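Kindly inspect this today.
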Amino acid sequence: MKLRLIALLIAVLATGCSSLQGTGDKGYISGDGQITTIDPADRGEPITLTGEDLDGNELSLEDLRGRVVVVNYWWSACPPCRVEQPGLNEAATELGDAAAFVGINIRDLSADNGLAYVRTFDVPYPSIYDPSGRALLAFAGVLSRNAIPSTLVLDEQGRVAATVIGSVPGTRTIPDLVEDIDGETSG
């Protein structure tokens, strides 16, 4: 059943016909915070993604294997991204070493814009700078290029275990997802 739901979600995202709002003149799709969890047996291959962070340092998701990883796609001019950022910061602080957080900054034509966002919102984790959107290729079939913000939770093997398309709907959403996914192997 969940595999069918995942296939339907992928088809909906690919066609643009869903509860996601149109891009209009915003340049992004406003998701509704839909949460999808994926059973361990139905998860795909581990995500391989390496890029430079906003400061020009290499950052690789593969280096974070063995931990649950929260990946958030954002853009500095995205209003829903700005609204959800304090909650993501809170989740990162609450979870501490229980999960790694990585942002992926897409669309900003200058890393300086991304760095200004990080300073403004006091973002406590690194972000890969990816104005071309190439990092989305690592999540092909899971995310649409225009679904900003989107948050994914990777299991300890680096596989997509959960997605939130649109703003994270509540302050407990990410901690609860991480605890459930972490509990799969430690519980």
